[in-house]
Amino acid sequence: MIGFCQQRFQPQNILDNLRVTAADAEHDSEKLADNLLEGKVPIDDFLKQYMDLRKVSRYQLFYTFSNREISRQVTRRQNSG
């Protein structure tokens, strides 16, 4: 169990999960836009849902890039010390 948790919370695994959730939110927002164009979603519902999905996607990407840089800095310090 401990090994599973250690592996699960490795920086690379966290970054991978952030990328996947960002891609999922991006895909969902595109699907929602298609539904709007096809008349399946009212504009008010679209705007709320679309903004929420895009916000999730952008936050995930921001955290991915931020954590990637932090991970690089930690690795550099470990390799130089």
Gist of the model:
The chain has 81 residues and is mainly α. It is built from three helices and no strands. It has a domain at 42-75.
Helix content: over 70%
Average pLDDT works out at 82
Q: Return Rg in Å.
A: 18 Å
Count of DSSP-assigned helices: 3
The succession of helices and strands, N to C, reads HHH
Which class of secondary structure composition applies to the elements?
A: mainly alpha
Shape: elongated
Unreliable residue runs: none
Number of strands: 0
> What separation lies between the terminal Cα atoms?
31 Å
Commentary on this structure:
The protein is mostly helical and 81 residues long. It is built from three helices and no strands. The longest helix has 38 residues, at 43-80. The chain is elongated. The chain starts with a helix and ends with a helix. The model has no long low-confidence stretch (mean pLDDT 82).
Pick out its properties.
3 helices; 81 residues; 89% helix; mainly alpha
SSE order and pairing:
Blueprint: H1 2-8, H2 11-37, H3 43-80
Helix pairs in contact: 2-3
